[in-house]
Amino acid sequence: MSAYLPQSQNGSILITSRSKGIALKLVEENNVIVVEPMAESHALALFEKKLGALGDRSDITELAGALERMPLAIVQSAAYIHQRAPRCAVRKYLEDFRKSDHKKTSLLNYEGGQLRRDWEAKNSIIITWQISFEYESQSQSQLDQDMGRKNQEDSGEISVSDDGSEDDGFEHDVQVLRNYSFISCDTDRTFEMHALVQLAMRKWLEANEQLEPWEQQYIKSLSAAIPNGEYENSAICQALFPHATEAIASISILP
Length: 255
Description:
Elements lengths: L19 H4 L16 H12 L5 H10 L4 H14 L5 H8 L3 H8 L16 H15 L3 H8 L6 E3 L8 H12 L4 E2 L4 E3 L2 H13 L3 H15 L8 H18 L4
Antiparallel strand pairs: 1-3, 2-3
Helix pairs in contact: 2-3, 2-4, 3-5, 7-10, 11-12
């Protein structure tokens, strides 16, 4: 693509990409603008612009939070509500969204038409992410394993042992995941993943018949990582408690 970009000191070219790695092949690092989830005020403004008078502000605020203030998810849900009004209001959508992962996925798979998006682009945020999962899983031999390990928690955080065993391949895959903003890291030991990305990954693993083996592996790894209940281990136990809660929920659906 870079061969087709005009080289000139006049004007600017705006290029959008889901992958920071691709962007860095076209521009310098200091010219990359990372689009983070919207601030609450901006998310509400977008919702209200798309919904008009169809929603109560408190319900809209709650739904924006449930969607983690992601623009595509907001636009997608607003289109769903608009096309089903008055039978579907913001409160009804929010209640359905919280019923189960199955219902949540169904709502987020909705392909509402967006006039300003590329006609070939998918309007479903779940499908958009899963296209990226599929692309990278074909080009990264270990990526799907690392992604599977990172998605098995409810709190959005997972700690990684710093025992020197991570190889260059693992670090490369971590960087790929960060380039797609699938994960972020606040320290060199902790990764975070948005709840909606976790949901999309679980459904992708399920579709590829990989979910159950990774759930079982996660439970085994967590069991080995949890220390005894001595007071000096309280900080570790507190950090791992949300993961244990998720593991218990997984056990109930395993054969």
